[in-house]
Amino acid sequence: MYLTKKEEKTLEGEYGETLRKAIEILVALGDIYGADSLIPVKSAQIAGVSYKTIGDAGLEWISDLKGKARIPAILNPAGMDMMRWQDMGIEPEFAGKQQEIITAYENLGIRTKCTCTPYYLEGFDAGYGDHLAWSESSAVCYANSVIGARTNREGGPSALSAALVGKTANYGYHLDEMREPVMAVTVDIDLSGADYGALGYVAGRVIGNRVPIFYLKGKPSGDELKSLGAALAASGAVALYHVEGVTPEAIRSKFKRPDENLTIEREQILEVYESETECKEEQETDIITVGCPHCSPGELKDIARLLAGKNVRKEMWICTSREVAERYPDLVRDIEKSGAKIVCDTCMVVSPATNNYRCMMVNSGKALAYVPSMCGVASRYGSIEQCVREAVQDES
């Protein structure tokens, strides 16, 4: 792999041990995947933030690094709401360790905004064709597919390395030829809202890590595309998908329809809603969570409308980024009037607070895939309207 003179000096340690380690990680990845060079990236989004997932070993590794990020960089969700962790039932020992992790990243010049939806943050925009180094699976899928930016599914160390060096290896989804669809997915039924998460949950298992192009009847919204991609990335390992006539590359490139086709029927979507394989049929839902990925302003508005004049009778978390919550205090106030909780900086997947529950209702295909396996908590699926009815126990 070609390196500039400055990159060679960095690899030789002339600019310090931290940068040497960082570029060594990037070069190693480049060598493995046949990259021709390192390329500049516009921003980084770094996973490996929750103390639940990285533990003391990860904290020690981050704390030993010295340096400053050269590009805008933010963090994936932490293991707790950084301001209201006590309300979540987080133990003080965990909270202390989590704060140490955030401080260690802050010392490296990383913005301590913890979210899986960095594209909602002001001043952290990504555009068509921009090269990025993002690591959270749903964020990667959204960036590649909905925005038309270019990023591989980075691990936490490689995304952090890219932030410190300002570059990443030029392979995978940074290259035109890797972004061509190889599989068609035909969905000749009407879909809306949580149906797209169910679609991603079903299709991702078949697609795996390939690049699909969807042929849909309708035109999904940005939030629906977010839900589709998040579920595709969680039930499979999709980092890029196209939707004919909707997503930017599908519009610009006019891809040829692939020979391999997967057809999704209405019955398969309904099975996701009706499945009781995670929660036993007689088992009562004891928590409802929404916001995986983190809620957009539009989703908060919808939730506030659905909860207006109602009181929740079960624990209900609405997860979003702190910046979005602070930007829309009226929506936060309206939602919390019902007794539901706005939870910032974290989500049900990476927080140990989830372990206090037995059966969770979600409106996210991503959460449906991850919560049982990563948290050991049974889960069932519903639309946001069904989730609200469950929370308020309103059968009307």
Automatic annotation (TrEMBL):
Domain Phosphomevalonate dehydratase large subunit-like, first and last residues per copy:
1-389
* Protein name listed in UniProt: Phosphomevalonate dehydratase large subunit
Pfam families, A to Z: AcnX
Q: Function of this protein?
A: Component of a hydro-lyase that catalyzes the dehydration of mevalonate 5-phosphate (MVA5P) to form trans-anhydromevalonate 5-phosphate (tAHMP). Involved in the archaeal mevalonate (MVA) pathway, which provides fundamental precursors for isoprenoid biosynthesis, such as isopentenyl diphosphate (IPP) and dimethylallyl diphosphate (DMAPP).
Signal peptide from the UniProt entry: none
Pathway of this protein?
Isoprenoid biosynthesis; isopentenyl diphosphate biosynthesis via mevalonate pathway
Q: Which UniProt keywords apply?
A: Iron, Isoprene biosynthesis, Lyase
Family assignment from sequence similarity: Belongs to the AcnX type II large subunit family.
The subunit structure is:
Heterodimer composed of a large subunit (PMDh-L) and a small subunit (PMDh-S).
Give the InterPro entries listed for this entry.
PMDh-L-like_dom
What catalytic activity is recorded? (R)-5-phosphomevalonate = (2E)-3-methyl-5-phosphooxypent-2-enoate + H2O
Its EC number is 4.2.1.182
Asked whether the keyword S-adenosyl-L-methionine is assigned, the reply is no
- Write out the GO biological process terms: isoprenoid biosynthetic process
- Please name the taxonomic classification of the source: Archaea, Methanobacteriati, Methanobacteriota, Stenosarchaea group, Methanomicrobia
Q: Name one GO molecular function term.
A: lyase activity
